[in-house]
Specification:
Flavocytochrome B2, Chain A, domain 1, alpha+beta, transmembrane helix, 2 domains
């Protein structure tokens, strides 16, 4: 009877412990998930275990010089480019980018005048340059391994986007929209054919395939000024669009309004 009672008490103890764990396990697990883990390299993990957070100082260790993987950052996001060691390794063409966020240099190509405080200040760039950076970002997302984020201009100490990052993304979205509109305009007003000779000067003319756009109409050469651009391009314009208010178009001097080719000299 004593043995039976001992086993019965053990069974009760197990049931109580199981009930406690069953109640608290989800909460314990959620607490564990919220802890920021520190790796042997001193890098903090963000919300995902493979989404690391780096200070600028920590990132510099990953330059491939002392048997470390090679990381670079672009727009505050860190990528493992070790598989491209022939490009990013010590002494190679793009080793400059290893261990740092030098986003500006992707546009300027200036590897000599590196200033850490301004090297990722991308809000100073033009719209076309912002689009170029977005293309670089897509390249690294597709071709290399994303590792995490740099604490600083783009992400805070919890890995959350800063106001700066949000502003940049808003500008990038506007730039993408602007590019889309320009592409639509080029479909509607395709480029002219153009050539230059010493004897005749510049020669512009329209065909059914000028500007690389195949179509069933030819159009008339016009100077087309896009919004925010002081320079013009030669565009082929349909007869019904010659009085458009969608864009600013002007005829070429000394050229018949319904001529499909024009000659002009640039002073």
């Amino acid at each position: 009877m004593t043995v039976f009672r001992r086993h019965f008490l053990k069974l009760q103890f197990v049931l109580v412990i199981t009930a406690i764990l069953g109640f608290y396990y989800p909460k314990i697990w959620e607490q564990l998930r919220s802890i920021s883990f520190i790796t042997k390299n001193g890098n903090l993990s963000a919300e995902k275990y493979n989404d690391l957070l780096f200070t600028k100082g920590q990132l510099t260790a990953f330059n491939g010089v002392v048997e470390q993987p090679i990381y670079l950052a672009l727009l505050g996001r860190v990528y493992d480019v070790s598989s491209g060691v022939k490009h990013y390794g010590p002494g190679c063409t793009y080793h400059f980018f290893a261990g740092k966020d030098a986003s500006i240099a992707f546009i300027t190509g200036d590897f000599e005048n590196y200033k850490e405080d301004e090297a990722d200040n991308v809000l100073t760039l033009k719209t076309s340059e912002i689009l170029s950076l977005i293309n670089w970002e897509k390249f690294y997302e597709n071709d290399y391994i994303y590792k995490g984020k740099v604490i600083g201009r783009f992400y805070d100490e919890s890995g959350h986007p800063t106001k700066y990052e949000k502003k940049f993304r808003a500008l990038a979205e506007e730039a993408e929209f602007d590019r889309f509109n320009k592409e639509k305009l080029r479909e509607k007003y395709p480029d002219c054919n153009i050539e230059w000779s010493l004897e005749k000067g510049s020669h512009v003319w329209c065909t059914k395939s000028s500007g690389g756009k195949e179509r069933d109409w030819i159009g008339y050469p016009r100077k087309l000024y896009e919004t925010g651009n002081e320079n013009f391009r030669c565009a082929c314009v349909k007869k019904e669009d010659l009085e458009t208010n969608e864009v600013v178009i002007k005829p070429y001097d000394d050229c018949e309004s319904k001529s499909q080719e024009c000659y002009y000299y640039v002073n």
